[in-house]
Write a structure and sequence with these properties.
- Helices cover 61% and strands 3% of the residues.
- With 299 residues, it is mainly alpha-helical.
- Among the domains are: 103 residues, DNA polymerase, domain 1; 53 residues, no CATH class.
- The protein is globular.
- It contains 14 helices and two strands; from the N terminus they run ααααααααββαααααα.
- β1 and β2 form a beta hairpin.
Length: 299
């Protein structure tokens, strides 16, 4: 099997078998191409036998090109996924996977999750799930939090009666207060993908998101999955599921949303709860000013 055949099979697995996002497919395919270039002629068996030392060498060469911690962690996840796929292709599932931990970022000041970090977090949680449907489920939950600003409890309280999702969703928040939030196409697609893969039938009065045994999905399971992905990506401890909701608010405010509209979208009882995001946005503005203003740099 030549390089082109391996890449084609890997691409098909990501796009059709795992239904990964275009961003993930591009990144993971590029990672595979670089690895194959460094190995020369190879086959599935050779890929399946790659150990931690080989991965460390590959990452070192990428580090020499200026790869940062977050990108290096994502590259390692792609390499491990490729090796796992190769074991299946070669009929070598009994071969132990390489054990290599990703890089970690030094702890610093809390910062909002960027759009790229949010996408990488959701993708990594999905890719590392023990089953495809569980990965699709966790990705849908996280995108509901980031794309619609839902609290984790609000996302997990959805039932079959909320399906199919339209352009807006009525959410019951704290104090049984209802609000209407927009639903982006990427969020609808993620929920539909989860439903297509879920082994549990959709029931009107049953939880939309199910656990492995069919019961309601717990917040703790989502939090643990995010914690593992956060470590793999080298993100700070502040990158929790709830941080996705905070990032939703911060990014909307930075894009020009007014506080009253943001208050409605978040379901805050008082405007004061929403105004904290102006401080976050102001802090980012001050940081940009200090880094860019010539007079500030001279002090």
């Amino acid at each position: 099997m030549n390089r082109a055949d391996i890449l084609a099979a890997w691409y098909d697995h990501l796009s059709q078998g795992r239904r990964r996002s275009p961003h993930t497919i591009r990144a993971y395919t590029a990672t595979a191409a670089r690895l194959l270039d460094s190995m020369g002629d190879t086959d599935w068996s050779a890929l399946a036998r790659l150990d931690a030392r080989a991965l460390r060498t590959q990452l070192a060469s990428r580090r020499a090109e200026g790869l940062g911690n977050v990108s290096a962690a994502r590259e390692l996840s792609a390499l491990k996924a490729l090796i796992s796929f190769s074991r299946g292709q070669a009929g070598m599932e009994d071969v132990a996977p390489p054990r290599l931990r990703g890089p970690r970022l030094k702890k610093g000041l809390p910062r909002p999750i960027t759009p790229d970090d949010a996408e990488n977090l959701a993708a990594t949680v999905s890719d590392s799930a023990p089953e495809d449907w569980i990965g699709a489920r966790d990705r849908a939950v996280l995108l509901l939090m980031y794309g619609a600003g839902l609290r984790i409890a609000e996302a997990l309280s959805l039932t079959g009666s909320d399906i199919p999702l339209g352009q807006v969703l009525t959410v019951t928040g704290k104090g049984n207060k209802q609000r209407v939030v927009p639903v982006l196409p990427i969020v609808r697609d993620a929920v539909e993908e989860y439903l297509d893969r879920s082994p549990w039938p959709l029931q009107r009065d049953a939880p939309l998101f199910r656990g492995a045994k069919g019961g309601a999905l717990s917040q703790g399971m989502v939090q643990k999955a995010v914690a593992r992905a956060r470590v793999a990506l080298g993100l700070p401890a502040t990158a929790t599921p709830h941080a996705l909701r905070h990032s939703f608010a911060t990014h909307l405010l930075g894009a020009g949303a007014d506080l009253r509209s943001l208050q409605e979208l978040l379901g805050h009882a008082s405007l004061g709860s929403t105004q904290i995001y102006t401080k976050v946005d102001a802090a980012k503005l001050l940081e940009t000013y200090r880094n860019a203003h010539p007079r500030e740099r001279e002090t």
